[in-house]
Amino acid sequence: MSLGWRFLLFLYNLIFLGLAGAVLAGAAGRPEPMHYANLLFSTPENRILSGVCALVLIVVFVYIMLRALIPEKKPKTVVIDQSLNGQVLITIEAVKVIIMKAVRQVEGVKEIKPAVRNSNKGLLVYLHMMINPECSVPEITEKVKDTVKRYLEELGGLKVAEVRILVDDLGTAGNKQLNA
Predict the structure, then answer these.
(1) Tens digits of per-residue pLDDT, 110-123?
(2) Sequence-distant (≥ 6) Cβ neighbours of residue 97 within 8 angstroms
(3) Are 15 and 57 in contact (CB under 8 A)?
């Protein structure tokens, strides 16, 4: 939560603390809270102002409640190492960076779009890529598989279960969708 919202929450709680104190004083038999409440609602202008303030408090209350109920989005991670001392995690985005670095080492790959999933057997890597038309598909895909697996295991410390590759003409596929 940002500093501004924390300050707003502080003020909101301070207002409710004051209201709770006034109710407590009224319950204890003090006449001041009732006198101030009568003054607050004595004129139409004061009633309108009180109603607007109450509406703002209700909106802030609903927002804070919704914000508290919705969990914060945490980045998707993969466990690298887990022991009694703790665990080491790496984000899926960092895994994709390692994959991109590995694929740059292979000649003939023009474009790549990686997708990564975690399974109990290890990492599942899906590569959607475009290669030069002059290159051999079996040779390039085998080089890409080996390089990606080696980089993920050596640089990332990850266990790779499978690397799947789909060779496609990514550049034309995007244009086909635009023209259709």
Answers:
(1) 889 999 988 888 88
(2) none
(3) yes
- Can you read off the two tokens belonging to residue 22? 């006034």
Q: What is the pLDDT of residues 2-37, one digit of tens each?
A: 787 788 778 888 888 888 888 888 888 888 878 887
Residue 78 · residue 92 · CB < 8 Å: yes
Q: Given 3-state DSSP classes, what are the helix, strand and coil percentages for the chain, each rounded to the nearest 5?
A: 55, 25, 20
Please name each of the domains of the chain with its CATH number.
3-69 (no CATH), 77-179 (3.30.70.1350)
The CA distance from 130 to 25, in Å, is 75
Three-state secondary-structure class, residue 163: strand
Flag whether the pTM goes above 0.70: no
